[in-house]
Amino acid sequence: MTKNFNANGFRVILRRMSEPSDAAAGATEPSLEEQIAAYQREFQDLDPQVEKVVSALQRLNRRMNVAYGRQTATLGMSNAEWEVLKALVVSGAPYRLGPGELAKRLGLTPAAMTHRIDRMASDGLVTRERDENNRVRVIVELTHEGREKWLEAMRMASVFEEELLQDLSGDERHILGDALTRLLRRVEDAQPDADGRLSDLD
């Protein structure tokens, strides 16, 4: 059984995450302004406006991944396992896909996908069985426990994401969403094979 989600409790965790730790106090990562100034010093053709957007996106993505990883860790799973649950849910009921299709969607090698499914099957998040209509084909299916884990992660993520965007009005969120979508489409058009990873990390 999944524990009941406490949104107020998670907000406390978020506030603690935002407070500088002893390690963070000694961090040496420069501010965006410092980084851009250093780049301009070494590369005079740099457009500081472009660099600010790109660097902010990179840092935001890195910190969001850390936050999501902490969320899934409280549920006893990894970001990698969350990605599999998400792919199965997005596929629609009955939440079933072959390992090859999952590997393609997540940008993984078949070997890495098999390793990930092994772990998740052992944890009861998915089942893996032969297709009754094609015994050569294997089907990975989301379990009730796996779906409950996905729902709990979504509840936690929604709190974090609302906190993240709290300073933006509805119109600002709409404008930002459209702008980021345009950037994403441009990258997808230029790099159609870059939806996965350069290498498997797990």
UniProtKB/TrEMBL annotation:
Pfam families: MarR
CDD domains, sorted: HTH_ARSR (cd00090)
Segments traversing the membrane: none
Span of domain HTH marR-type: 50-185
InterPro entries, per database record: ArsR-like_HTH, HTH_MarR-typ, MarR/SlyA-like, Tscrpt_reg_HTH_AsnC-type_CS, WH-like_DNA-bd_sf, WH_DNA-bd_sf
Stated name of the protein: MarR family transcriptional regulator
Species name: Streptomyces lunalinharesii
